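Table 4 source record.
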Amino acid sequence: MYPEPDFSKERAKLFIFAAELNRPPLMDNIRNFCIIAHIDHGKSTLADRLLERTNTVDSREFQNQVLDDMDLERERGITIKSHAIQMDYEHEGKKYYLNLIDTPGHVDFSYEVSRSIAACEGALLVVDATQGIQAQTISNLYMAIEHGLEIIPVLNKMDSVSAMPEEVKDQIVDLIGCGRDEIIEASARTGMGVDRIMEDIVSRIPPPQGDPEAPLQALIFDSVFNSFRGIIAYFKIANGTIRTHDMVKFVNTGSEYDADEIGVLKIKREPRNVLSAGDVGYIISGIKISAEVKVGDTITHVARPCTVAIAGFADVKPMVFAGIYPVDADDYEDLRASIEKLQLNDASLTFVPESSAALGFGFRCGFLGLLHMEIIQERLDREFDMDVITTVPNVSFRVLTTKGEIIDVHNPSGMPPATAIDEIEEPYIHAQVISKSEYLGQILKLCIDKRATLKNQIYLTSDRVEVTFDMPLSEIVFDFYDKLKSVSKGYASFDYHITDYKKADLVRLDILLNGEMVDALSTLIHRGHAYSFGRRMCEKLRELIPRQQFDIAIQAAIGAKIIARETVKAVRKDVTAKCYGGDITRKRKLLEKQKKGKKRMRQIGNVEVPQQAFLAVLKLD
C-alpha cells in the first residue's frame, strides 16, 4: 500500500498564489505612462517591442501593431483609440507593474491624448530621427508638460539610412531643455534601445501619488460597449481601494451599481478581487444605458463617498458639424442606438436629433475634424452595419441679430432671415505648419488663398521652417489638409487650436432643384468664394443627377438671387417618327401635345438626389 499523499502543503501554496494574484501591488512599484508622438513616428511599433520585452504578449498571439485592435486602424496605419495595457517588469530584484496607454498622433484625435495624459505620471516622447520634430509632437508635448508629466525623449528609427541624429537631438534639446545624454537612441523595428527605455521608465517616472485608505476616487478615462456584459468602464484610481461586489456610485450621474467584476487590462481583461490607489483597471456592473457612463466622471463608494469629484479633462468642443441620416427612414432608432454606443468609445463625438425636408429624420453630429468624421462614418458601417448619408460639413457660427440676441448656428437651415441678421462671426484658429523650406512659397500661397494672415516664420534649422497663421476654421474644413500634403510632397505637418470668433462677410448658399430648395446641400460660405463654389456645385450635380422625363433646373442662389444654373435635359421619345410626308402642322401638333405632358409631369415629378451628390460636395476640385 502506498502512503496517502499530503495535499495540505500544495493547497497552502495555491492559497498563497491566489492571495498574491489578488493583492494590489505597492504604489512604489507602479508606473503609469503614455507614448506621445506625431503620426507615423513609430508609437505602435515601440509599444509592440515593450510588450515583447516584458512577455506580456504570447508569441503565438503576436501580430504587428498588437494594440491597434480595429481593422480600420490596421488598414490606414493610424491609431484612432487610446489603448491601455499592463506589463510586468523585473528590475534589480523588484517587480514593477507598468501601465502603458498608447495614444493617437493625428490632430483630430487629440482629445484621446488629453485623456491618456490625465491618467499618467510620465510620457515617452517619440521623435522620428529621419523627420525631426513635427507640429503635433509639439502640441501633445505642451499638454503633457501642463499636466506635470515626466518626459523621456526617445529618438526612434536610428537604423534608417536617412536618420539625422545630431540635428534632431538639437531640436529636442531646444524644445524641452534636456541634456543630450538623456535622449535615448532607439529603433522600434529592431529593438535597439528598448532595455534602456524600460530602465528609464522605472527610474525616472515617479510612482502615482494617492492614499489607499482614503474614500474611493477613480477617474473614468474610457468606456466600451459589450453586448453580453453591458458597458465596461476603464478607470484610474487616484485615492482609495475598490473590491469586487462593493456598492459604487458615479458622481455626476448619481447612479449606483454593484461592482460585479473589476480587474486589470492585459492583452485580455484579467479579473482581480482588489484594486488600490495608482492602479489602472476596468469595472463591469451590468450597465445597459449608455447615458449613465460619462468619460471624465468619478467612481466612489456609496457607503463612504468622496467629498469632491476628480477634475476631468477639458470639455471637448466639436470643430466640424454635419448631418448624419439613415438611407432607410425606418433605421432611425437603430442609428440612434449605434451613435450612442459609439459615443461611449469616443467621447469627443456629440449629436442632437434634427430633421431635413430632403432626407427625413437624422442627427446633427459634432466632430473634431474631417478625418474624425470619416472614421465615425466608417465605424457606423463596419461595427453597426448602418448605411448613412452625410451632409455638407460646416463649422459653428455666431449670429448677432437686430434684436441684440446671440445665436449659435451649426446648420445653414438654422440661419435667421437676412433681414434679422446684424452681423455674423466665424471661428478663427491659430495654425502651425512645419515643413521643408523648399516648399515654403507654395504653402504661403495655399494659406493666403484660404484667407489666412501670416503671423510668424521661424527657421528651426537651415532647411526646416515653422510658419504660424491666423485663419478661419471654415477654410480648412474641406480640402486644406489634402492640399497641404500635396504641395509639400507629404512633408508638412499641421496643428491648430481654436482662438476666438471674428466678424465675417458670410452668405447662405442654397441649391434649388426645379425651384425646390434641397436643405441638405445648403452651405454657409464667404461671399468672395460663393460664386465659384455655386458654379462648381451645379456642374457636379448635373453630372450626378440621372435624366428624367422632364428638364431639371439646378440653381445656386443667395437669398432670392440666382448666381449659377445648369440644366439636366429630359429623356425624349421621338413622337414624330410615325409622321411621314404631309403637312408640318401634324408634326407640330404632336410636339405641342408632348410639351404639355412634360410640363404636367414636371409639376408632379420628384427629383431623386443620389447619395453620391451629398458626398461629391466634399470632393470638389
